[in-house]
Here is the input.
Amino acid sequence: MRASFSPDEREIVTAGSDGTARVFVVSRADEPVDDLVQMAQLLSAHRLDPAGGLVPLDNHSLSNLWQTLRGKYPDLFRNTR
Here is the structure.
């Protein structure tokens, strides 16, 4: 798979090995990059090692991420029931 940003950085175009192309509209985030990285780690339960490989996060790390991000962004972590 390959991915590229459009010149205005508002879209990402991907091309799969099966010939499928997709266009994703993206918007700029207001959150700091470090918080977005932590959110990605929490949602994927992995982090990237220095070589770009995925490393599973242990329960303690996931709990710390949950607590930190819930404190900063309570609306994202509220129960919707």
In short: The helical segments are 33-44, 59-72. The mean pLDDT is 92.
